[in-house]
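TEACHING EXERCISE
Course module: macromolecular assemblies
Task: Read the component lines below, then compare them to the predicted structure of the full complex.
Student: A.B.
Group: 4
Components provided:
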Amino acid sequence: MLQRIKHIINEGKRFLITTHIDPDGDAIGSVLSLYWAFESMNKMSLIYLRDPIPYRYNFLPGPSHTLHEFNDTAFDGIFVLDCGDLSRIGDGYESLRDRGTIINIDHHNTNESFGSLNLVDETASSTAEILYRLYTSLNIAFTLNISINLYTAIFTDTGSFRYENTNAHAFHICEEMIHKGVNPSYVSRMVHENHPKERFILLGLVLATLETYFKDRIAVACVTNDMFRQTGTTREHTDGFVEYLREIKGVEVAILVREISSTRYKISMRSKGMVDVASVCNLFGGGGHKNAAGCYIDGNLYEVKQKLKGAFNIQ
Ligand SMILES: [Mn+2]
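Instructor-supplied answer key:
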């Protein structure tokens, strides 16, 4: 598979790079690192992102602009990164297939192998780890622009080297990126210590909704559109909230319920390892990893919480 992808890269001139909606650090870092990898090979690449780059990743080097709409051009390859299924790219994803060969590079175990070429390794800590292998086999030099993006992708997807997907490869690659000039404390400051004050006012409101079920093994907190209005914040300010809930002693699964509308909610789940939250989210048509997954549930807030409770079979 690696050989076939290398062939497409070596033969092609123009590429499109994209990832999922509500992009996280692995999504952004992976996309931007691939952009710089193409730059170093003197190949043209464009980035399509449905959503703007979240503020905490604005420090990462990237092109001066990214596409937020598809135009009519065709590409020699379309790289879809960190995306379990193609629809996660957002509106217009159907038209992508007519614009070039889709190369799917990912580490979600729910990945649907939607590409013409699929480089999926669910044992990898992150999509960035798989890209590192690709760059190495292409003999691409790890410039600071590539390195800081790969480092940040791995740093964030492993929860700052705390989650179960933290493996020796993650440390090995990050060590190499430090040798290439990445400053770990700078990345950590940019990612974790650069939030607007409003985010913490929102966090206070969200934590006040905390409930636990099944003898404190499940923790649930909610964020509503009213809270966003009240604090002048948006969805991206909730990034990291569900991870706080995981820090509660005895909690096995942390859940953040975010209002989309009064009858539809977005669910983010994090597990400490005992419960496979990807399979729970799958019950509602979502997916993700064993320890980090998401889905949408229809109903009012009360009904959504009841459905969540019903989905867990904990004695
Ligand atoms: Mn990822």
